[in-house]
Amino acid sequence: MIEIKNIAKSFNHKKVLDDISLNINDEESLAIIGPSGCGKTTLLRTIIGLSRPNGGVVLIEGVNIFEARQRELDQLRLKFGLVFQYAALFDSLTVGENVAFSLREHTELSETEIQKIVAEKLELVGLPGTQKLYPDELSGGMKKRVGIARAMAHNPRIILYDEPTTGLDPVTTSNIEELIIKVHCELKVTTVIVTHQMNTVYRCCHRIVMLADGKLIETGNPEETKNTQNETVRKFIWGGL
After folding, report:
1. Angle, CA 95 vertex, CA 178 and CA 201 arms, to 5°
2. pLDDT one-digit tens code per residue, 69-113
3. The domain that contains 225 carries what CATH number?
4. Which of 66, 147, 158, 186 is the most buried (most CB within 10 A)?
5. From CA 124, how far away is CA 78, in angstroms rounded?
């Protein structure tokens, strides 16, 4: 379980996160929604320990990640896989090398074992046999899939997605959504998706939390969120109507 308690974060005296408290359960699929600049990505980065808050704590399986020693923090981070908004692949590395990157950095697996894992993960995301391609030879949707394969390489228990369908056409968006659902169900991971795409939210997530002006203003399942009486939430999910 991830426990977020009273998290506060400011940049240049502007509050980005204001007393955020939230529990994320094992094997849950959670969406964090809200308008641009509301703190969604900052919260995601705080959960994994990449952004240190001004106040509050994040507990991963009871361990405060901001008090953990570096070695313990490194072990905790291996429980996470992070899928970046624009895939963030290394342009100078092949697809296979991108997927293998964390395995080479954080494990002592043999090259044979690494190549087996790379092949398995690429197969899972529907890109078998693409190990020798470079990112500039891939479409936007293929890059997203490689990013997901890389995030899964070390078998994390939690996968965080930052705007996984941004910039994709409707068909590719639907394919990525189906892949997120497949990964969640087959690997039984905890899934956290930061997005403003409501179709992605409704298809992929069991629970929704919404941020606005740095505060958590709504939490509920998709049906509850659709029927909320909170005017700010209604305007966001229905496009201001």
Report:
1. 25
2. 888 888 888 889 999 887 789 999 999 999 999 899 888 899 999
3. 3.40.50.300
4. 147
5. 20
The pLDDT score that the predictor gives to residue 241 is 40
Judge whether 16 lies within some domain.
Answer: no
- Is residue 1 one of the residues assigned to a domain? no
Spatial separation of the C-alpha atoms in residues 26 and 184, rounded to whole Å:
11
pLDDT at 240: 47
Give the C-alpha distances (Å, rounded to integers) separating 106 from 57, 77, 155, 203: 26, 11, 12, 34
CB contact at 8 A, 171 and 10: no
Looking at residue 93, what DSSP letter applies?
Answer: S
**pTM exceeds 0.70:** yes
Spatial separation of the C-alpha atoms in residues 51 and 56, rounded to whole Å:
12
E-strand stretches of the chain: 2-11, 14-24, 29-33, 55-60, 63-64, 80-83, 158-162, 190-194, 207-212, 215-220
Q: Is residue 122 included in any domain, yes or no?
A: yes
| Cβ neighbours, 10 Å, residue 199 | 13
The domain containing residue 222 runs over which residues?
A: 24-55+68-237
Asked if residue 185 is part of any domain, the answer here is yes
Say how far apart CA 138 and CA 117 lie, in whole Å. 21
Domain count along the chain: 1
